[in-house]
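User: Please fill in residues for this 284-position structure.
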């Protein structure tokens, strides 16, 4: 069964296989990359290969990935959709510090604009919960601050990250939500019901750490199926996500052109119903 190749992201239509820029920063997503020239080459090859959705943030580095994106890709292709995140900053010790204050969010949007060298960012995701977790806090004040920037023309669309269904509902009472970015992959499937609901609502779901992130997916069953099909386990895990729901947009990250090519090839994988059932059993 073939999966759709594109899906709406706000007013845009993007290829479902995108690119996440987090790994362009140094170890621990902090400082400059180990190989600056390779980072630039990865971005250029991604776009040349049809990627038109790049996910980034000023808190990667901090500021490092956005500056590399600007160096590699500006002036930007007309169809390139850049999505960034606000709601956190990095400490001098490389710690991740949540910044829910509206004034901090506004400042961060301007920082992203400056480092990317653009006048408006296509999508800004409001990060609410900390890594791998959510909370039940109201997000109305934070969402309203971004909505004001949207009215000013600095933001095209607003998305949400690390959020619950209740927080999505709260945000949608205040404005349109273009996408939701939560932790999800073949093994970690807490948001199954949310994905299906968002698909019904026509809202994109963008799983972060689709391959496990800092701890790559570990599954003997996944490895066995992939070997039988003649592909890598990571390619199979990405192909499963594309088949899982039509509203899933992928942003696997890498700092290597060879790994980029491997990831992009997953978009061409066709999974049979039998293989899909095997993979679903792994997740179960």
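Assistant: Residues filled in for all 284 positions:
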């Amino acid at each position: 069964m073939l999966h759709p190749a594109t899906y709406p992201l706000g007013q845009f239509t993007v290829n479902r296989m995108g690119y996440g820029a987090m790994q362009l920063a140094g170890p621990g997503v902090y400082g400059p990359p180990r190989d600056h020239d390779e980072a630039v080459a990865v971005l250029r090859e991604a776009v040349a290969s049809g990627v038109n959705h790049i996910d980034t943030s000023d808190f990667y580095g901090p500021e490092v990935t956005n500056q590399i994106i600007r160096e590699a890709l500006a002036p930007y292709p007309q169809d390139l959709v850049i999505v960034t995140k606000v709601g956190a900053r990095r400490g001098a010790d490389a710690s991740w510090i949540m910044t829910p204050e509206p004034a901090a969010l506004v400042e961060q949007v301007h920082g992203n604009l400056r480092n990317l060298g653009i006048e408006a960012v296509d999508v800004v995701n409001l990060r609410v919960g900390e890594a791998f977790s959510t909370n039940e806090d109201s997000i109305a004040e934070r969402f309203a601050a971004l909505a004001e920037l949207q009215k000013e023309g600095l933001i095209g669309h607003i998305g949400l990250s690390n959020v619950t269904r209740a927080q999505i509902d709260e945000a949608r009472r205040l404005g349109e939500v273009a996408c939701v970015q939560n932790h999800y992959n073949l093994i970690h499937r807490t948001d199954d019901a949310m994905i299906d609901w968002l698909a019904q609502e026509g809202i994109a779901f963008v799983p972060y750490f689709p391959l496990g992130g800092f701890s790559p997916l570990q599954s003997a069953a996944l490895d066995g199926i992939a070997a039988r099909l003649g592909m890598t386990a990571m390619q199979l895990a990405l192909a499963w996500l594309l088949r899982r729901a039509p509203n899933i947009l992928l942003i696997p990250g890498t700092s290597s052109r060879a790994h980029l090519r491997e990831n992009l090839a997953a978009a061409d994988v066709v999974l049979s119903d039998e293989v899909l059932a095997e993979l679903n059993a792994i997740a179960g």
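For context: The two ends are 22 Å apart (CA to CA).
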